[in-house]
């Protein structure tokens, strides 16, 4: 009798843990869908349903200085400009890690430069790896921290880095 009571008590103690595990799995699946939709915005520059995925005051922090830009309109404008310069722009998530209120990803971007604004077209292709961390609040992306290899990107376009001239 004592053994069966002990088993029942163990079951009742473990039951809430199993439900919490399911909640976390469900939440992770929901966040994964939002991350996938976010990547779709980057790849298509089509923003249907964006207000369901991204917080209106989203902040984007990009390397090298991690100065922020804010708001959905600024986010859209950056992606539209990127697609103007690289019509075949593609972002592929190579690896994603999702937690309760954040996601991290390693990604690769590719594209061919056709110029934009005062920057002439190089016609050259780029392939750059980087990583991002997304933070969620109330189920929406509130910020993204982006770290990519800007120097490699520019070198692939034909830019060079020259050492400073010693003026002695």
Overall number of domains? 1
Q: What is the CATH third-level topology name?
A: Nuclear Transport Factor 2, Chain: A
- Compute the number of strand runs: 6
Strand content: 25-35%
- Characterize the largest beta sheet: strand count, sense, and whether it forms a barrel: 6 strands, mixed
End-to-end Cα distance? 93 Å
- CATH domain class: Alpha Beta
Mean pLDDT: 88
Specify Rg, calculated over alpha carbons: 22 Å
Strand order of the largest sheet: 2-1-6-5-4-3
Shape: globular
Describe the structure.
The protein has about 170 residues and is of the alpha+beta class. It has one domain: Nuclear Transport Factor 2, Chain: A. Helices cover about 40% and strands about 35% of the residues. The chain has three helices and six strands, in the order H-E-E-H-E-E-E-E-H. The protein has a six-stranded mixed beta sheet. A hairpin with a 4-residue loop joins strand 1 and strand 2. About 10% of the residues have low confidence.
Structure described in brief:
The protein has helices at residues 2-44, 72-85, 150-156, and strands spanning 54-62, 67-70, 90-98, 102-112, 125-137, 140-148. With 168 residues, it is of the alpha+beta class.
Furnish the topology, listing elements before pairings:
Blueprint: H1 2-44, E1 54-62, E2 67-70, H2 72-85, E3 90-98, E4 102-112, E5 125-137, E6 140-148, H3 150-156
Parallel strand pairs: 1-6
Antiparallel strand pairs: 1-2, 3-4, 4-5, 5-6
Task: Give the tags.
168 residues; alpha+beta; Nuclear Transport Factor 2, Chain: A; 3 helices
């Amino acid at each position: 009798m004592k053994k069966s009571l002990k088993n029942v008590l163990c079951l009742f103690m473990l039951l809430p843990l199993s439900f919490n595990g399911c909640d976390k799995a469900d939440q992770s699946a929901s966040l994964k869908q939002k991350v996938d939709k976010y990547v779709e915005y980057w790849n298509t520059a089509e923003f249907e349903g964006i207000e369901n995925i991204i917080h209106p005051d989203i902040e984007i922090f990009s390397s090298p200085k991690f100065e922020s830009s804010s708001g959905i309109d600024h986010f859209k404008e950056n992606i539209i400009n990127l697609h103007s310069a690289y019509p075949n722009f593609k972002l592929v998530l190579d690896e994603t890690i999702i937690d309760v209120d954040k996601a991290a990803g390693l990604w690769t971007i590719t594209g061919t430069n056709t110029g934009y604004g005062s920057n002439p077209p190089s016609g050259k292709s780029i392939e750059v790896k980087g990583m991002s961390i997304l933070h969620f609040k109330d189920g929406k992306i509130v910020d993204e921290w982006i770290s990519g290899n800007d120097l490699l990107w520019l070198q692939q376009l034909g830019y060079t880095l020259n050492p400073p001239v010693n003026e002695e």
